[in-house]
Amino acid sequence: MHLYGTQGISNEGHLTIGGVDTVELAKEYGTPLFVYDTALIRERARGFIDTFKQLDIKAEVAYASKAFACVAAYQLAAQENLSLDVVSGGELYTAIKAGFPSERIHFHGNNKSYAELELAFDTKIGCIVVDNFYEIRLLKEISEAKQQPMRILLRVTPGVEAHTHDFITTGQADSKFGFDLNNGQADLAFEEVMGHEFLQLLGLHCHIGSQIFETDGFSLAAGKLMKKIGEWKEKHGFECTVLNLGGGFGIRYTEEDKPLAPHIYVAEMINTVQAEAAALKLAMPEIWIEPGRSLVGDAGTSLYTIGSQKTVPNIREYIAVDGGMSDNIRPALYDAKYEAVIANKANAPKESTYTVAGKLCESGDKLIVDAALQQAESGDILAMFCTGAYGYSMASNYNRVPRPAVVFVEAGEHQLAIQRESYDDIVQNDLPLVLKKGE
Fold first, then answer.
1. Which end of the chain is more exposed for a tag (fewer CB within 10 A), N or C?
2. How do the domains of the chain map onto residue ranges?
3. What is the arithmetic mean of pLDDT over 18-46?
4. Which long-range contacts (CB under 8 A, 24 or more apart) does 25-29 make?
5. Distance CA 108, CA 127 (A)
6. What is its pathway (predicted)?
7. Predicted local confidence at residue 158, as pLDDT
8. 170-184, 294-308, 325-339: lowest mean pLDDT where?
């Protein structure tokens, strides 16, 4: 059995995380429950940051918070000297409520509203990543009305297609994100913002996809961006100070996944940018990256209580848990694969095969198909690994199921980070019918 971070097995045969018994966590906080190993998050963050320091490269490592966002998560990121990538007014508002340093916040998104951009100006965030011509017009209008400068990056699509799932590949030409680097859109965007009184163009941004296990795509994208920067330097005298190469670094979900260590991704990016800068006689820009999944993905574990079981003779054995696609939509949406263990029997052999079904009223609500597990019984606690990214953040109230609680654990201690929703929470925004029945 593959264990992640501080996971272990107690003398009682229970799965532990951060020195805390997961069975006891399930008893205290209930299930479904997200458990985050904060020591592993810290380790991942330092792996990226320390590599830049060791190679003497000026950089920012921004947590791509769409992977998992809450006040405590943002405060943890601040403790580790991360910057922050937000993609909505809601994420930005949460970051400000968490006390995150606004100068280290970068705002992304392909359809930022006027109100969201105003909030970015009012909170004096560090940078806006500009995605389209409509946004340029809004930024000019707001900055001129407020007489306030704003640092920006232009997001470009470099035409690099990462080896990943079609739904999470965003660097190719046919993308809703960014200015195309190859058809002249990026050049037009540059001309729109260069020299503006209040918009301060730092450089370029790209993101080629997610769950990537190779460095080739990052190197190819970095090379293309540097060549474009070289063109702008030669034609317009532009000095690029920041090159943001995005994120998408893969993690291990199952034994088929072979992720690279953070320092390998970083070193390859730096080598490419340094080589291109030397060849083009450019100053070395500051490098920004945006890990999200690779910071929190394998630090999260979902705990469920097993309920009903069903045998389909000669076909399948089902066990059902008290969560499902309402707290983890990825198996249904992306055909994502996971591994699991019965937490209260973690040291027992995995001699059974089950399909883990959720409780939602959808036949596609299956968390794991044909999972190798210990012999399961009703009341057992199932621990599903690597659910820290895009689990809670994509959770819903489908079937009016309350969202789970979230607990952080570290060094034998645990704390509630997000309270479990109640039925009252579910109906709090509902209003009674006041229309009269027609005659």
1. C
2. 8-37+298-422, 108-291
3. 98
4. 25/303, 25/407, 25/409, 25/414, 26/303, 26/305, 26/343, 26/381, 29/405, 29/407, 29/416, 29/420
5. 9
6. Amino-acid biosynthesis; L-lysine biosynthesis via DAP pathway; L-lysine from DL-2,6-diaminopimelate: step 1/1
7. 87
8. 170-184
Q: Report how far residue 381's alpha carbon sits from residue 238's, in angstroms, rounded to the nearest whole number.
A: 58
Token digits of residue 290? 């945006």
Please indicate if the annotation marks 141 as binding a ligand: no
Between the CA atoms of 428, 430, 434 and 439, what dihedral angle is there, to the nearest 10 degrees?
A: -140
Q: Kindly report, residue by residue over 107-149, the tens digit of the pLDDT.
A: 999 999 999 999 999 999 999 999 999 999 999 999 999 999 9
Determine if residue 297 is labeled as part of a ligand binding site.
no
How far CA 54 is from CA of 58, 166, 219, in Å, comes to 10, 35, 20
> 323 — phi, psi (to 5°)?
-135, -150
| Residues 5/40, Cβ–Cβ less than 8 Å | yes
The amino acid sitting at 343 is: A
35-90: pLDDT as tens digits: 999 999 999 999 999 999 999 999 999 999 999 999 999 999 999 999 999 999 99
- The pair phi, psi for residue 413, each rounded to 5°, is -115, 155
Q: Contact at 8 Å (CB) between 344 and 18?
A: no
Residue 135 CA to residue 386 CA, distance in Å, equals 36
The half-sphere exposure of 36 on its side-chain side, counting CA atoms within 13 A, is 26
Q: Distance from CA of residue 82 to its chain's centroid? A: 14
Q: pLDDT by residue (tens digit) across 371-394?
A: 999 999 999 999 999 999 999 999
**Strand blocks (E) in 364-437:** 366-373, 381-385, 405-410, 413-418
Q: Hey, is 425 helix, strand or coil?
A: helix
Please, which pLDDT band fits residue 434 given cuts at 50, 70 and 90? Answer: very high
Superfamily of domain 8-37+298-422: Lyase, Ornithine Decarboxylase; Chain A, domain 1 (2.40.37.10)
Tokens representing residue 396 in the block = 């819903």
Say what the pLDDT of residue 209 is: 85
- Assigned architecture for domain 108-291: Alpha-Beta Barrel (3.20)
Measure the CA angle with vertex 289, ends 285 and 295; round to 5°.
155
Q: Which residue type occupies 385?
A: F
Q: Write out the E strands in 47-99.
A: 59-64, 83-86
CA angle 170, 406, 308 (to 5 degrees): 95
Catalytic residue among 70, 127, 206, 361: 361
Band of residue 1 on the pLDDT scale cut at 50, 70, 90: confident
Active site residue 361: yes
- Confirm if 17 and 412 have CB atoms less than 8 A apart: no
